[in-house]
């Protein structure tokens, strides 16, 4: 018996954009569009009535924006299984961080390749987070450098993690999934997944998206630098 298709809700105030995404998603045999919303209020309501698995959410919409709609969905216990994938016009949009705080499982820019959008929907539907490492690093670095900026995830940090857990967290922050993390560290995918679950518990992180924010905020991962897999810390800089 084949698995049920992923039920996708599209939320965007531009009808042409919704129609284009709907055609793409319906062309995939493992997905179906179960509703379309033109604003955040409709999206929050349809997430419940349409029994969506994934909401593809535009950030900027009238009446209620995508951030507030995401917050409503994440706060509703009856919608605990609904994942939100945020779409933004620019990968430098500061509102993406607000969306991640609100409960989004990841984000993509709107000009992403069609195949990448389908992959992203499958990724968040499976319970993983999707964060583009390059844009995420630049975005979080800029937010953290803002004078007086509050912590993105208050009261958390990797200080209590084991060395192996720090290594895993550093790779998660670089955008690697469990299989890729396992390969990089010579672990089994199940062991890598177990490490991620333990890290989330220790850091009180809601999902992998928050793990990424914590890693950058704590300095475990520095934009533009690759972590040292022996320590899980940023590589030491050398003078030329």
How would you sum up this structure, described in words?
By secondary structure, the protein is α/β, with parallel strands linked by helices. The chain has two domains: 6-130, Response regulator (Rossmann fold, 3-Layer(aba) Sandwich); 143-234, Arc Repressor Mutant, subunit A (Orthogonal Bundle). It is 45% helix and 13% strand. The chain has ten helices and seven strands. It has helices at residues 15-26, 40-49, 66-75, 95-102, 114-125, 133-144, 163-173, 178-185, 189-203, 208-218, and strands spanning 6-11, 31-37, 54-58, 83-88, 106-109, 227-228, 233-234. The strands form two sheets. It has a five-stranded parallel β-sheet with strand order 2-1-3-4-5, sandwiched between helices. It has a two-stranded antiparallel sheet with strand order 6-7. The termini are far apart.
Write down the domain tally. Answer: 2
Question: What's the tally of helices?
Answer: 10
What does the largest sheet look like?
A: 5 strands, parallel
Structural class designation: alpha/beta
Tally of strands:
7
Cα Rg: 18 Å
The rounded distance between the terminal residues' Cα atoms is 61 Å
Q: Which superfamily, in CATH terms, is the homologous superfamily of the largest domain?
A: Response regulator
CATH fold label of the largest domain: Rossmann fold
* Adjacency order of strands in the biggest sheet: 2-1-3-4-5
Shape: globular
